[in-house]
Design brief:
CATH architecture: 3-Layer(aba) Sandwich
CATH superfamily: SGNH hydrolase
Strand content: 5-15%
Number of helices: 9
Number of strands: 5
Strand order of the largest sheet: 2-1-3-4-5
Structural class: alpha/beta
CATH class: Alpha Beta
Length: 260
Amino acid sequence: MKTPLCNVFRMVSALLLTNALSTAADPSPTKAKPEAGSRAEVKKGADWTFTPDPSLPNVLILGDSISIGYTLQVRALLQGKANVYRPTSPDGTKPVNCSGTTSGVKGVDQWLSGHKWSVIHFNWGLHDLKHVASPGSSQNTNSANDPVQATVEEYSRNLEAIATKLQATGARLIFATTTPVAPGTTNPLREVDAPGRYNAAALKIMQARDIAVDDLFAFCEPQLDKLQLPKNVHFTPAGSQALATQVAKAIEAELTASPK
């Protein structure tokens, strides 16, 4: 039996009205979608477990998803020279994102426990400078009117506290500058000029504490179109590999340096 044309019109009108009401009812139009993360971070099947060599020095990498994207490659590049670790789940099968300095202050004691570290390569910044629903939260937004997770002043205080914990281990430390933000980056919103401001604050701390710096921002900036995803802070597989090569060089230089 054919549906009368008037009934078809009624059904179409009802669907259009339902969609309109659903859109109008959204109370948070500036709320960002969950952050996608780097391809390396979300890649399934990556094997994060490994058997350390007790005769080799232990290296710890601390950082967010950018560092997750290069940790396994750094481990491969330093095979036979160091045991390369990063925070992982209790069973060692999944990487842990160290997030912003607010989380870093809370988690650093746990991340440092369990091993004697020869070198620690660390970074915080991209989570601190992103826009969130309320200060210190992880509820991402796309609104410039919303606060950042941690202001430069808060970031500096947190980073000072973290650096104090790291230096207490006796390890040689390397701070990695925060990598660039591509124009148009959203989900969450991050401003292009923000890494420069946070890096400037971090570099003052590192200089005062005589901590080595791996300037990943300067390394990436001239070749962002080759390394980074558009409108994003994350990197292509080739970009993560390039970062890994740079990080491995910085770590190896500290491993072979004369004692301070």
